[in-house]
């Protein structure tokens, strides 16, 4: 955000999904666009924001460990490692024994291997948001909370192209030719205000914080773990599982997308379960 930009938030900043994100940043994804975006985000969160504002985003470079519980997943991780080489992201495919040496608490008996990315890390979502707002305000941007967008005025220009003319709020309209829809899972609703279909589906996401577990802190630096395609953790089919150190020392927070949980229907102003 820079001079002249206005961020309208219907409630308080981070009140959307950001407040309960695990805050993991893993750099290796199958798409090159994502890898570049994540590299940029890592630079901003781990270094540039702090240099610019003097505030800390809560960045901890504790490394990411992707766990392969079948051969196909391990092959995928080998491909990710090759992609990482092209983009300068250091990563290592580890055998179960090497994984055990890195993370002694883990039972590696039924693992095919892991992908270790030493420069992955975690951030504090609220801290990152506060720091971003400080940087944006210093460049002349404005943040207005408790100000829902209620409509987007669109006009058709001389060439028949539909263009944004203004954003409507309860406190009056803001004339603008440009709107960035950053309403997260509510983006479809905001898109509809301008007659735009945003192809987005919200899914339930389970989240558990454990009691203290002895030994979780490894070498003073906890690791972020992520396991995909397993079915032994939550009793149901888990698509995707992320573990990270929680706010409490020696405890973990654990989140997974579980297909039985299904989709979420979103009401106009909040969450409502389908
Ligand atoms: C349990 C969990 C764990 C996660 N873990 C990770 C992780 O480890 N790493 C990772 O990268 N991602 C993770 N995610 C995903 C991540 O949280 C989201 O991608 C991210 O928070 C999205 O941020 P956002 O700013 O796009 O959306 P949001 O934070 O949802 O912000 C959208 C904002 O738009 C506002 N809004 C909606 N409608 C209007 C309106 N009409 N007018 C004005 N304002 C409006 C809302 O109030 C909200 O504050 C996780 C998500 C969950 C649920």
TrEMBL record:
Source species: Spermophilus dauricus (Daurian ground squirrel)
Domain FAD dependent oxidoreductase: 6-215
The protein's name in its UniProt record: Sarcosine dehydrogenase
An MF annotation (GO) of this entry: sarcosine dehydrogenase activity
Cited Pfam families: DAO
Domain of life according to the entry: Eukaryota
PANTHER family found in the cross-reference section: SARCOSINE DEHYDROGENASE, MITOCHONDRIAL, SARCOSINE DEHYDROGENASE-RELATED
Signal peptide start-end: none
Segments traversing the membrane: none
GO BP annotations listed: sarcosine catabolic process
InterPro entries listed in its UniProt record: FAD-dep_OxRdtase, FAD/NAD-bd_sf
Any GO CC annotation of this UniProt entry: mitochondrial matrix
């Amino acid at each position: 955000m820079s001079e002249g930009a206005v961020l309208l938030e219907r409630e308080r900043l981070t009140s959307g999904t950001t407040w309960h994100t695990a805050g993991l940043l893993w750099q290796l994804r199958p798409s090159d666009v994502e890898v570049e975006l994540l590299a940029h985000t890592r630079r901003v969160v781990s270094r540039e924001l702090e240099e610019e504002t003097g505030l800390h985003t809560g960045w901890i470079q504790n490394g990411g460990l992707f766990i392969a519980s079948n051969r196909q997943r391990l092959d995928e991780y080998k491909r990710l490692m090759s992609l990482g080489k092209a983009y300068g992201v250091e990563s290592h495919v580890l055998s179960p024994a090497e994984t055990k040496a890195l993370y002694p608490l883990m039972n590696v008996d039924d693992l095919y291997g892991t992908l270790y990315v030493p420069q992955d890390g975690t951030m504090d979502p609220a801290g990152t948001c506060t720091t971003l707002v400080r940087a944006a305000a210093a460049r002349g941007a404005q943040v207005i909370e408790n100000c829902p967008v209620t409509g987007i005025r669109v006009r058709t220009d001389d060439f028949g192209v539909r263009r944004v003319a203004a954003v409507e709020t309860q406190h009056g309209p803001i004339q603008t030719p440009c709107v960035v829809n950053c309403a997260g899972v509510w983006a479809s609703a905001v898109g509809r205000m301008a007659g735009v279909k945003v192809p987005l589906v919200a899914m339930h996401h389970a989240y558990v914080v454990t009691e203290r577990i002895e030994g979780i802190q490894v070498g003073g630096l906890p690791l972020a773990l992520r396991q995909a395609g397993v079915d032994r953790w939550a009793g149901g089919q888990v698509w995707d599982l992320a573990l990270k150190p929680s706010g409490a020392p020696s405890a973990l927070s654990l989140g997974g997308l579980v297909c039985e949980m299904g989709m979420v229907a979103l009401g106009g102003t909040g969450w409502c379960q389908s």
